[in-house]
Specification:
This protein is α/β, with parallel strands linked by helices. Helix content is about 40%, strand content about 35%. The strands form three sheets. Strands 1-2-4-6-7 form a five-stranded mixed β-sheet, sandwiched between helices. A five-stranded mixed β-sheet has the order 8-9-10-11-12, with helices on both faces. Strands 3-5 form a two-stranded parallel sheet. The protein is elongated, with a radius of gyration of 22 Å.
Length: about 240
């Protein structure tokens, strides 16, 4: 059995499944709901509640699930799975890496936490003009696709006003990406603007961040250098 709640203003689609899913459940309920959500044009997020009596799929339902997955599962930038079934949680954790969006599992008593995780901003990307042709870009928390959509507009506006610039990339508060889609958006932002900075100073406090600067040299035209977080003044002086 499948129950679908209306798509929220934040683009969250809530689905509850129980008992054994049949092909009729897909044809009559889930597929139309997913198609309608995809047509809305929103950035979609999915809350999937798996009831304690859920026992799996019929053979035809499994085939319907595979076809639906090929069309829509990649369209969700975040997926929260709420379940107390260990086998469902293990399956989600095993397969979650293959989805472009972020995936988290929650117990049923954590339903409110799951809803909050779907809608709250877990990361942000801040830009600040430091003067002398230096732009500071600070990455904070875990970034999702929405953060990069906003950053791309801000970056384009800065370039229109200032032309080429020197970049101070602050990674000291950065915790990574929410899923493969966010990582893809990061690489897209770099690719679109790789020729604009004349110099890049990377500010960090972790070994992987220093490695990121070494990799960056292969993707951008500008000279780049890594600085530990206490050496911020030295980084700005090198840029200037």
């Amino acid at each position: 059995m499948i129950t679908v709640s209306p798509l929220t203003a934040q683009g969250v689609l809530e689905i509850r499944i129980s008992d054994t899913l049949t092909a009729e459940d897909y044809a009559g309920t889930l597929t139309p709901a997913m198609d309608e959500a995809a047509a809305s044009g929103n950035r979609l997020r999915l809350l999937l509640q798996v009831g304690p009596d859920f026992s799996g799929f019929t053979a035809k339902a499994a085939w319907a699930d595979a076809r639906l997955g090929l069309r829509h599962w990649s369209g969700f930038e975040r997926i929260a799975v709420v379940t107390d079934l260990d086998w469902v949680e293990n399956m989600v954790q095993f397969m979650g890496f293959a989805l472009p969006g972020a995936v988290e599992t929650f117990d049923h008593q954590e339903l409110d936490d799951a809803r909050r995780w779907l809608t709250e901003s877990l990361g942000s990307l801040h830009m600040r003009d430091l003067g002398n042709g230096i732009l500071q870009v600070q990455l904070l928390g875990k970034l999702d696709s929405a953060a990069y959509a906003r950053a791309n507009d801000d970056m384009d506006a800065y370039i229109r006003d200032h032309g080429r610039f020197k970049l101070l990339l602050d990674l000291t508060g950065f915790d990574g990406w929410l899923g493969l889609a966010a990582l893809g958006d990061h690489l897209k932002l770099v690719r679109q603007h790789h020729h604009i900075p004349t110099r890049v100073a990377v500010l960090g406090d972790a070994a992987w961040q220093k490695l990121a600067q070494n990799l960056m040299r292969h993707f951008i035209a500008a000279e780049s250098r890594y600085f530990d977080s206490p050496d911020r003044d030295a980084a700005c002086a090198w840029l200037a």
